[in-house]
Amino acid sequence: MSANGGLAIDVSGLVKSFNGRRVVDDFSLRIPEGKIFGFLGPNGSGKTTTLRMLCGLLTPDEGQGTCLGLDLRSEAPLIKRQTGYMTQKFSLYEDLTIKENLEFVARLYEMDNRKARVEDSLKGLGLYERRDQQTGTLSGGWKQRLALAACILHEPRLLLLDEPTAGVDPKARREFWDEIHTLAGRGITVLVSTHYMDEAERCHEIVYIAYGKLLASGTADEIIADTELYTWRAYGHEADRLASKLRGTEGVASAVAFGSKLHVSGVDADALARAIAPYRDGHDITWEETTPTLEDVFIHLTSGSKDNFA
Amino acid sequence: MRRLLSFTRLGAMLMKEFNHMRRDRTTLGMMIGVPLIQLILFGFAINTDPKALPTAIYAAENTVYTRDFTAALVNTGYFKIVSNADGKDVDRMLTRGQVQFAVTIPPNFSRDLLLGKTPQILVEADATDPVATGSAISALQQIRSTALQRDLRGISTGPSEPEPGFEVIVHRRYNPENITQYNIVPGLMGVVLTMTLVMITGLAVTRERERGTMENLLSMPVRPAEVMLGKITPYVIVGYVQALIILIAAAFLFGVPVEGSVLLLSGAAILFMIANLAVGFTFSTIAQNQLQAVQMTFFFFLPSLLLSGFMFPFRGMPEWAQFLGEALPLTHFLRIARGILLKGSGFMDIAADLLGILAFVIVASAVALTRYRQTLD
Ligand SMILES: Nc1ncnc2c1ncn2[C@@H]1O[C@H](COP(=O)(O)OP(=O)(O)O)[C@@H](O)[C@H]1O
Ligand SMILES: [Mg+2]
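A: This is the predicted complex of the input protein with magnesium ion.
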């Protein structure tokens, strides 16, 4: 695939408006084949809308690009054949059985050896014994696994996963991510939206979007380095209680408690030092300068970006 | 690559829809229950008094007496002469439903009249819809005593001769005993199919949108024609079951005669069902949710009920209403069902009405397919 320079996704200037509101604004993204990209951003920032544009479910108002070397606008049906899209809301048929759902998908993609493939998939999932159970009766974690199995059944080259692990327990999440890495190892490209920082850190690169605008992209370390954020960590006697006092103080962009620890961040190192000065002496608290975490950066990015929804 | 239709994918849609249907017992029960309930409810007929019914007249001679009789006929207000044809034609026009009455004035009518031989005028009425013909037939008896009074006054010998010099013989064709159920029950087949099929397809598609499964479906390589055919076909089968229930009830419960070919009726029923399913599919491309789909169904169902000739005799309606009625598939199907069952109509007799439905199917499917979005835009 040299035609597209080894890029699974190469789009630029995507715009989508609903009722005159720009929900996705000038969005550009390049993802090399076989990479896992994490798609982060607050609720309503346009992640789902972007994913829908990439798999041909929504037509962009502006912008162009390719998925798997195929034109986003004119070759959407071909893109669909090689893409697996997992919707944010579970969208297999709950009144059909597990097997019926998988068979339906296999037929729609006109796959050969359908029977064997569906059986393999059921066994791989560990749902072979329960294949005749109605899908609606599965628990949340099982539904997510089944949805993933359904969207990789036709062996797509690109996976678009929309918050696939929302509401799933940690063990199931870990297994889910192991599976994603296995798939990427086979050369499948993955763009996955999530709100979990640990998941973001398991991605090769991260794309951060807020209110329709792309705010940061790169590896976790790059994003942290590029943001030029200064962070102090405080721990000790009731350090976390200071969060509300510091918030809104000049020079403080964010003050967040993590358990009994406190992270205070700001863009101006001097102003930040002045802001925390009153709490440094005479308190039972230890302060130390630290590198900001991804979460510090994202909270900062979100609060700093213009909220066009207000 | 970009074939319009793949049988594997269509097969996938069909199996899925059958599975949905199998598991949705309530809807399935409703689809069988509705025809039964309506069958019982519509045991009653609505009486009206339509005028200016189309009448074909065949006069074997043209004299002052036949002209005066014709004028008297028109003056009652119930008859509107649409054709002066020869004897064979009036019969065919009656079978095809082009006219409600066929009047035949025999040869030598005037001579026999003057000779006092009491000639007979034959009035054949299409009584499939007894409500439509009832008043007109009573009016005929009036004519008998008044029509030729003036003409005959000079001839009659007595000063106040009350006897009219001729007789009017009325033949009620197709439904000689004037049984209202004969008219209602075949019509009910069309009404039930209209209501359930439009609603069910409307719901089947909007349900996918409401539950979010549409998003998943659209992200896969399925084409509009496959979705539409896949959604519609299972309900054609349901429609057949409904039609069968009504037909059996018609024959055994109400003793409605089955004069024509049941096969021909089945063929016409398919076309009619497709017309309704296409309407339902179109609605589902407009409706945002299931409630709206149901509302739209009634938006279509009520005019169908009122303007098709099911509730009120078609010819009793004002012209604009008849015009609207002609556009509705139910209007044509009613004529077909009544024609085949009661009159024994053949293919040629119902051809015009089949064309009427076909035109509707073409328009509705075109609208449905252009409205259907392969995206969520
Ligand atoms: N079909 C639509 N019609 C109108 N507004 C929409 C539609 N889809 C999404 N939106 C709006 O666009 C914004 C972005 O939504 P979305 O892409 O779902 O964000 P995210 O997935 O990041 O939470 C939201 O404010 C949402 O209300
Ligand atoms: Mg979303």
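The interface with chain A takes residues 1-2, 6, 8-9, 11-12, 15-16, 19-20, 23-24, 211-216, 218-222, 375-377 of chain B (CB under 8 Å). Chain B has two domains: 7-46+180-371, 53-146.
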